[in-house]
């Protein structure tokens, strides 16, 4: 079923108005002025009704676009310089979204070889099977 059937304005105009309102947080009257500048004469109360009707559905369909890219990865890598038994070393840690250590690697050198050695473990293991250290 077409939710825009029987509407006075075209689908694209309604979707743009709802998107502009939700994304930029402008008032209905400001949005009315913006649309009027573009040749679309619509009342602010009509825009309000559009937002009430179409915004929840738009949010539901677009939610996965708005995710933070860091949320897509189940863990993050952290690297620091620590003293172990009187000697300085580099500690590489994989930390999950709750801050728990997933795995760690201690290296005397800070170079790409050490980092790749640590990250190589995670390339072959699915995220659901990563152990908690």
TrEMBL record:
PANTHER family: BLL1675 PROTEIN (PTHR35528). Keywords: DNA recombination, DNA-binding, Transposition. It holds the Pfam family DDE_Tnp_IS240. Residues 75-123 form the DDE domain. One of its GO terms (molecular function) is DNA binding. NCBIfam families: transpos_IS6. This is IS6 family transposase. It comes from Klebsiella pneumoniae.
